[in-house]
């Protein structure tokens, strides 16, 4: 995505300090985790659950133009 912590903070209204702490292994409120996930999904990130079988394999990936169809 090429976003800085500041970019992500601006997109989510979560403080850059909280994002930085989370990236270092700290805890984050469930509501903020959901907000992060929704923000990334809106930007084209696909989160695949454990055991979910879709094109591209398990994990996190960018949505392709084929997925948009």
Automatic annotation (TrEMBL):
Name of the protein in its database record: XRE family transcriptional regulator
InterPro entries: Lambda_DNA-bd_dom_sf (IPR010982)
Classification of source organism: Bacteria, Pseudomonadati, Pseudomonadota, Alphaproteobacteria, Hyphomicrobiales
Domain of life: Bacteria
């Amino acid at each position: 995505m090429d976003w800085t912590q500041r970019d992500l903070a601006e997109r989510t209204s979560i403080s850059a300090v909280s994002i930085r702490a989370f990236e270092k292994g700290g805890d984050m409120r469930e509501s903020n985790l959901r907000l992060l996930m929704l923000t990334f999904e809106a930007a084209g990130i696909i989160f695949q659950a454990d055991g979910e079988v879709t094109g591209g394999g398990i994990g996190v990936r960018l949505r392709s133009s084929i997925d948009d169809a």
